[in-house]
Amino acid sequence: MSMGMSILLFLIPFVAGVALPIVTARRSAWRQPIALGAIALMTLVAAYNLRIVLTQGPIEYALGGWAAPIGIAWLNDSLAAVVVLAVSTVSLLTLVYGRVVVPARLERSVSYYTLILVLLAGLVGIVFAADLFNLFVFLEVSALAAYALVGASGGKGAVYAFRYLLLGSLGASLYLLGVGHLYVATGTLNMADLATRIPDLLTSTAVAGGLIYIFLGLSIKMALIPLHGWLPDAYQNAPETVSPLLASTVTKVALVAWVRIEYSLILPGAEVSAVPVLVLLEEVGVLAAVVGGALALIQTDLKRMFAYGGIGHVGLILVGVSLGNATGFAGGIFYLLNDSVMQAVLFMIAGALVHGHGVRTLDDLRAMGRPSPWLTGALIVVAVGMVGLPPTGGFFGKWNIVLGALEAEHYLAAFSVVASTLLTLGYFVRVFAAWFHRPGATSAEAPMAPGSLMASLGVASVALIALGIFSDPIFKVLIDFVSGGGI
Amino acid sequence: MLDLVHEWLLRPNFIVFVTLFLWGLYIMVVHTNLVKKLIGLYILQTSVIFFLVAFSSKEGATVPVIRPDSMPVDAVEYANPLPHALTVTAIVVQVATLGVSLALVSAAYRKYRSLDENEVLQRAE
Predict the structure, then answer these.
(1) How far apart are CA A207 and CA A203, in angstroms?
(2) 3-class DSSP assignment, residue A229
(3) Percentage of residues in chain A with pLDDT exceeding 90?
């Protein structure tokens, strides 16, 4: 039973996604409950899977019964289990939220629910795949679903989805090119097998070039500055229910894919400081963290501001995982989990404002009447998390990234975390100034938020604080993961 | 320098790959017509597939099917099937991407009645 947990986690959304158009062809009212049920089941299985992995250690699954070097292997380890749990929980929250804030045409649209389920199946595949080419296939499965979701409401969304597609496919081609290089140099695609052969070949230009292509490809997918061009437009114009889902999952999972490649292929054979390109990654992260925060500060559109904030945070996470010590790694991955929830809440708030009040920019926000107290509460919690103050998980993530940077004596990295924090504080001050500004003397009663909105915002806010309170056991899992010899 | 050129000329496959890749990228960057951008992307993706096929080519090798009379197996006589399997999968991915992108282009065209990127973006604002 425990053997097949990873494949079960993939099959739940995949089978539901494929069956949905057939089963509900004439019963449009069933679509939402089926999708919700499948993702809820997946979340439960993911939680159970995490428990199994923590007690039994990493579990490898050989697809089709062909063992690893010949067949395709999936590795279900603590990193994968934690990330899958986070991804499925966040998707469940955004789908519940989508019950209220959904454009009329999408509410019963079969393609909308199918695409979400296929996106999830692809993301699960990326996280579990222990084979470079398998990872490429799932990268494209999830990316195709993401392009279609961004363009789901047509019009402007379709134009920006097309631009996202052009860049995303360029990234995928670069990734495939890198995989080709590594295959030529080593003759294998299995990560565990590659890990035994790459350390001797790190000086080979084919291996170095291949790894650089892979990183370039994935950095387009994770919207790392300066390859972030597609993200703000795509998220700003995506349907209100889609942007929280994409912002919290797609870029983060691409980053997880890079972490897995770096930690299982390169780091067992070489120190970070010995490979100049790896040191450079940290500087790229520093640049992304500072520039992303600065760009967020000058935006006037709320969704764009949050999108740039997310781009900056991808840089921060990259800084953490590229430091090459366990503290930085645990801080980076923990911050990734937090950021996944925070991005979901931010875009949920932005979507609820567009949907309920027609508010898109800071000026609209200033002119708006009293918003629902649930929105205000969630915004305060998520702002505390984004800035990184103690009760929330954001603090512990950033704290450990700084500690890791000091441990590695990379003071620029430590500085970038602080700078990014100040920039984040800066743009939240702008949001709050507009939020609590009341035009004239409107003493109108605040509108009540619909139940689903309250539930998803409430659960997400509680999750942000819970991540902070229970950060110790999560850090222990992550540090065990990295000091247990990579994968 | 001459040695380098000589070395390159020994590998015509890779010159073709690099040319196609850069050509595709150039079309994607320079042209404003959405369908032309798509063609550029297609050329670029095809060049990567060409790369996979090119490095797996082997002179005098045969199809990797093992028959009862071909025992014992000598790997040198067979072409490596794995890059071809990768190629087939990559082509499937490429076709799926093309389908989604054409759908998006036609959605944009129906709404804005233009295929020129600048015009479409102007009308979308």
Answers:
(1) 8
(2) coil
(3) 27
CB neighbourhood size of A93 (10 A): 26
Cα distances (Å, whole numbers) of residue A353 to A90, A244, A308, B125: 20, 13, 18, 21
Q: Which of B13, B86, B122 to mutate to test the interface with A (most CBs of A within 10 A)?
A: B86
Gap from A235 CA to chain B (nearest CA, Å): 15
pLDDT for position A66: 79
Torsion of CA A378, A380, A382, A386, to 10 degrees: 170
E strand or H helix at A300: none
Q: Which of A196, A219, A141 is nearest to A487 (CA)?
A: A196
Q: Do B55 and A169 touch (CB under 8 A)?
A: no
List Cβ neighbours of B9 (8 Å cut-off, separation of 6 or more): B15
Interface contact A170-B28, CB threshold 8 A = yes
Tell me yes or no: is domain B2-58+77-124 CATH 1.10.287.3510.
Answer: yes
Euclidean distance between CA atoms A122 and A41, whole angstroms: 17
What are the structure tokens assigned to A450, written together? 């619909």
The residue with tokens 């309170």 is A469
Strand partners, B33: B116
- Amino acid of residue B50: F
Residues of chain A predicted below pLDDT 50: 486-487
Residues 9-68 of chain B whose Cβ lies under 8 A from any Cβ of chain A:
25, 28, 34, 37-38, 41, 44-45, 48, 51-52, 55
Q: For position B13, what pLDDT does the model report?
A: 85
Confidence of residue B37 (pLDDT cuts 50, 70, 90): very high
For position A352, what pLDDT does the model report?
Answer: 85
- Band of pLDDT at residue B70, cut at 50, 70 and 90: low
Q: Do residue A151 and residue B111 have CB atoms under 8 angstroms apart?
A: no
Dihedral angle sign, alpha carbons of residues A350, A127, A166, A290? positive
